[in-house]
Design goal:
Elements lengths: L15 E6 L1 H18 L6 E2 L13 E6 L11 E6 L1 H8 L4 E6 L1 E2 L12 E3 L5 E3 L5 H22 L12 H24 L6 H10 L2 E5 L2 E4 L4 H10 L7 E2 L1 H14 L1
Parallel strand pairs: 6-8
Antiparallel strand pairs: 1-5, 2-4, 3-4, 7-8, 9-10, 10-11
Protein name: Transposase
InterPro entries: RNaseH-like_sf (IPR012337)
């Protein structure tokens, strides 16, 4: 860390570390790495003038070997041959599914008497709650923080909360109001579905559930997936029906408003 004079100094920070394994997280890590390696494979055997490897994106799975163009030998020269970094891939695979939660939150030790107030800071820098705090408690707290962080991502991406095309204060306020109401409805739907699907997946599914007019009084709905099926079962809406009349659509909307 840096002190007030701008000099780098070492400081001891006490923290509680919880190592967690998730099979779902491991599967996602393997899938994401496989896609990145597939993308990186397109650059194998390319020549590069820069010896510095990349630490970001798909390029982090590539290494650059000194290469002599005239002889085809790998040796210290000005050009570098791009190769797949198998060692780095194997090293990452060892940690698939594992993540570490670092926190300064602790609870009372077994047999420790309660203190005044709901919490306090200990002399060695821990934030102590006036109750026992298990590893499972920390994991649940972390999940809550993750959902708060994801809320900001949803606001910026799926709901496009930034009022880039608005100028008047009333329009900006109205835009944010619509975004927050949409976010509330989206979160309530996620909660009702037990957080099985992301906000982006639900938004994409609902946006795709559009009807196309094929006659004077007939609309065809040609999109249906597992997300729509789950939403429909929870809200009592049959999204699997491929054709509806205008009267049926109006009746469905009215029925939905009465139920929810």
């Amino acid at each position: 860390m840096t002190d007030r004079q701008g000099k780098r100094t070492k400081s001891l920070v006490n923290e509680r570390q919880i190592v967690v394994y998730s099979a779902q997280y491991a599967q996602r890590a393997r899938m994401e790495r496989a896609l990145a390696v597939e993308k990186a494979s397109g650059q194998i055997y390319a020549l590069s003038k820069d010896a510095k490897p990349s630490a970001y994106g798909a390029a982090k799975y590539l290494k650059k070997v000194p290469f002599d163009r005239s002889t085809g030998e790998c040796m210290p020269e000005t050009e570098y041959l791009v190769m797949l970094d198998e060692a780095r891939i194997e090293k990452e695979e060892q940690f698939d599914g594992y993540y570490v939660i670092c926190t300064n939150v602790i609870g009372r030790e077994q047999g420790e008497a309660p203190f005044s107030g709901p919490y306090r800071y200990t002399p060695d820098g821990f934030f102590q709650l006036n109750r026992t705090v298990t590893d499972d408690d920390i994991i649940e707290i972390y999940k809550g923080l993750w959902r708060i962080e994801e809320t900001f991502k949803v606001m910026k991406s799926e709901l496009k909360a930034r009022p880039v095309f608005l100028s008047t204060e009333s329009h900006i306020r109205a835009h944010f109001f619509i975004c927050f109401v949409s976010l509330l409805l989206m979160r309530l739907l996620e909660y009702r579905l037990d957080w099985q699907y992301s906000a982006a997946a639900m938004q994409q599914a609902l946006a795709s559930a559009c009807g196309t007019s094929v006659g004077k009084n007939l609309y065809v709905f040609d999109y249906y997936d597992a997300v729509l099926e789950a939403i429909g079962k929870n809200l009592g809406i049959d999204f699997s029906k491929q054709s509806r009349t205008l009267q049926e659509i109006r009746h469905l909307l009215a029925q939905t408003k009465r139920k929810h």
